[in-house]
Amino acid sequence: YGCLYLLFEAYPVVFTEGHHLNLGQSGLVFLPLPIGGIISVILYILFVNPRYAKKVEQYATAPVPPEARLDVTLFAAPLFAISFFWFAWTSYPSIPLWAPLMAGIPLGISISWIFLSLLNYIIDAYLIAAASALSANTIVRSCFGAGFPLFATQMYEKLGPQWASTLLGCIAVIMIPIPFVLIKYGTKLRAKSKFA
Predict the structure, then answer these.
(1) InterPro entries from the entry (predicted)?
(2) Are 15 and 26 in contact (CB under 8 A)?
(3) CA-CA distances (angstroms) from residue 146 to 30, 141, 154, 160?
(4) What is the pTM of this model?
(5) Is residue 8 part of a domain?
(6) Digit-coded pLDDT (tens) for 164-191
């Protein structure tokens, strides 16, 4: 959420200032994000959910391990980082605005997949305490979403859109291992918790 909300501050810099769009046109540049979200939901319904349904049948009498929810994040986490680099290095005013604009589609896809899979993972991991776990997750996520935009303008002015967005991409790259670690060590980590 921090990276996403900080990127929202970058859009006016890139599209309104860099490409000289008016306010109405600048509002339209956000459309690729929900389009990516819609695509991700369709793909989730068509491909990801049926794979999970097969795992439910496979485990039949036992619950499916929560880590099974994270399969899609193995694709979404790198896609999230790639989207930031794509946006960063196509955000020059000399490059047609369609290039940075289209980076919003994979960004929307990756955000939706990460969000859906991690929320389902939290629910499956905590079961009875899921409401509390989701609340804690929402608070932390919202703090990052509220905090990052506070320094966004200064960051984009000092670094420029290319390097500021590259920094966000680097933060996203640092987060790529999270689903891989949870898939590999999730069972051991949950065994140490009295709530999971």
Answers:
(1) MFS_trans_sf (IPR036259)
(2) yes
(3) 19, 9, 15, 21
(4) 0.92
(5) yes
(6) 999 999 999 999 999 999 999 999 998 8
